[in-house]
Write a structure and sequence with these properties.
It is a single chain. This protein is α+β, with helices and mostly antiparallel strands and 215 residues long. 43% of the residues lie in helices and 26% in strands. The protein has 5 helices and 8 strands. The strands form 2 sheets. The chain has a 4-stranded antiparallel sheet, covered by helices on one side. A hairpin with a 4-residue loop joins strand 2 and strand 3. The longest helix is centred in the middle third of the chain and has 27 residues. The radius of gyration is 20 Å and the shape is elongated. The chain starts with a helix and ends in a 6-residue tail after the last helix. The relative contact order is 0.15.
C-alpha cells in the first residue's frame, strides 16, 4: 500500500489540469487569510525574537489607485448592463472579486514582511503570498543597500521588485531553492528585494551574521 510520501509524489506528477487549479485555489485562500490578518492587525510567520521588515509602503498608493479604478469600472459596467440582469449580476460578482483580490494583494504584502530570525539563523524574504524564500544566514556572503529600478532576468538571480524597484541585494556563497508560483524550482545565488528601511535590514542582517542579537 502506498504511504503518504508516495501519494504526495504521485500528486506532484499529476497533469497540470489538476495541480494548477490547486495552486490557484491555495493562492486565493491565502489572500483571503491575509485580509483577515490585516483587519486584525496581525502578521504572519513572526515568532519569538524574530524581527520584521516591511516592504509594502512603496506600493500602497499604486495598489489603492488600481483598486479605485476597478471600483469605477464596476460602476460603469453596472450602468451599461442595467437592462441585462443576468450579465449584470455575473459581471458585478467578477468586478467585486477583482477589487477584493487587489486589496488582498496589498494586505498580503503588509502582513507578510521579511523576517530575520537571528536565533534560528535564517532570513526569510517574502513578497505577498507569491514568494517565500528562506536563506540560512551562514550562506550569505554579502548584503548591501543597492537601489535598482530596472531588472533583467538572469540565471541564478531572483528580483522581487516592489513599485518597480529593489533596494537590498543579497549575495549567497551557496545557492538556495526558490519555488515559483506554479511549483517550479530554481537555484538562486543573488536575491534582490525591497524594504521600507533598507539600511535597517542590512544592519540587522550584518549583526545577526556576526552573532549579535537583533534589536
Amino acid at each position: 500500500m502506498k504511504g503518504p510520501s508516495a501519494r504526495r509524489r504521485a500528486f506532484l506528477r499529476a497533469p497540470s489540469f489538476v495541480t494548477v487549479p490547486y495552486l490557484v485555489i491555495r493562492h486565493e485562500l491565502r489572500l483571503l487569510a491575509s485580509l483577515w490578518l490585516w483587519a486584525a492587525r496581525r502578521t504572519h510567520g513572526i515568532q519569538g525574537g524574530a524581527a520584521a521588515f516591511g516592504y509594502a509602503r512603496g506600493q500602497g498608493a499604486m495598489m489603492f489607485g488600481l483598486g479605485f479604478v476597478c471600483v469605477i469600472e464596476s460602476v460603469m459596467m453596472s450602468v451599461l448592463l442595467r437592462d441585462w440582469p443576468t450579465a449584470h449580476h455575473v459581471v458585478l460578482v467578477l468586478d467585486v472579486y477583482t477589487v477584493l483580490v487587489v486589496v488582498g494583494l496589498h494586505a498580503a504584502s503588509v502582513v507578510r514582511p521579511h523576517v530575520l530570525d537571528a536565533g534560528g539563523g535564517t532570513l526569510r524574504i517574502r513578497r505577498a503570498v507569491h514568494v517565500d524564500v528562506r536563506i540560512p544566514l551562514k550562506r550569505i556572503a554579502s548584503v548591501r543597500r543597492e537601489l535598482r529600478t530596472t531588472h533583467e532576468r538572469a540565471q541564478g538571480e531572483l528580483d522581487l521588485a516592489v513599485g518597480s524597484q529593489t533596494s537590498v541585494t543579497i549575495g549567497l556563497a551557496e545557492p538556495v531553492t526558490h519555488v515559483t508560483f506554479l511549483g517550479r524550482r530554481r537555484e538562486v545565488r543573488v536575491v534582490r528585494c525591497h524594504a521600507d528601511d533598507p539600511g535597517a535590514l542590512v544592519r540587522a542582517v550584518d549583526r545577526a551574521r556576526e552573532g549579535y542579537a537583533v534589536p
